[in-house]
Amino acid sequence: MNISTSYQQLSTHIWQVPVDIMRFSEAELTKKPLPDKWSKKEIMGHLVDSARYNLMRFTEVLYSSEPYSFPRYRQADLVRINAYQLQPIDNIALLWQSLNQQILHVMGQVPTESLLKPIIDPDGIQETLGWLFQDYVVHLEHHLTQIFGKNGELIPDSSGLSTRRVSEKEALRLLETVAPARFETVMQHGPMKVEYYMPVGEDLQQPHDQDELYVIAEGTGMFVNGADRHPFGPGDVLYVPSGVVHRFEDFSEGFATWVIFWGGRRDRSPFGLAARGETVQG
């Protein structure tokens, strides 16, 4: 995993994980595989602690004298003291998301030469800031695998869905399991994600961080896409660039659409990698 890949992976996880973690029931979230092992909720709490400590490290490296040295933190004690097992999962997920948005923002501003600033890890081994950021994402994905499984997607194995074909019937079945939520992720590979969306009454969505396509499955109405406003119906394909305000209005009962997200952030070129002749994957 190189630095640009780490950046894109973290960008994807920031928006995906808080959505997918809500699919688990409270019983699933608090179940411990063994008495001395963390539950899914406690793993998310540990990832909050990891984000908090690593945000401090990423920023302190940039103003500290070289090389920057940091100790370990007492992860088990922090999970116990913060009592994540007793907290609502949406609170934990929101805190995790906010901390990682700041990490992504900070790392997006780091000059290329600063990625080579030396650090000393808790074992006394000298590394660099760039390595520390990549290692942070590797650690994150290790724990996400514990929560969501080993198939490389943020879809629990119990979903029963194929990774290459999903029918509308299967999408509706999944949507019923997360009611009253009105959307559900039905397929994902890397930064590509497919959702099935059935808003009721009002479409309250906000601009997204990725480009997206809507493929209308059922219903009619009007679609606001930036400065444009036009009608839609079954079979229509609607493209929305990342960051553009958009929403469905005056839609008919039973309206449903597939939503396809792809690519990474379009608002910056991370770390100036393109200037060094490297390709930034998007």
- What is the CATH class name of the largest domain? Mainly Alpha
Uncertain spans: 151-162, 265-282
Largest sheet: 5 strands, antiparallel
In the CATH classification, which architecture of the largest domain applies?
Up-down Bundle
End-to-end span in angstroms?
15 Å
Estimate the global geometry from the Cα principal axes.
globular
Helical fraction equals: 25-40%
Within the CATH hierarchy, at the fold level, what is the topology of the largest domain? Four Helix Bundle (Hemerythrin (Met), subunit A)
Radius of gyration, in Å, reads 21 Å
Number of strands: 11
The total count of helices amounts to: 7
Secondary structure category: alpha+beta
Walk me through this protein's architecture.
The strands form three sheets. Strands 4-5-11-6-9 form a five-stranded antiparallel sheet. The protein folds into two domains: 3-153, Up-down Bundle (Four Helix Bundle (Hemerythrin (Met), subunit A)), CATH 1.20.120; 157-189 and 192-262, Jelly Rolls (Sandwich), CATH 2.60.120. The relative contact order is 0.14. The protein is an alpha+beta fold and 282 residues long. It has seven helices and eleven strands.
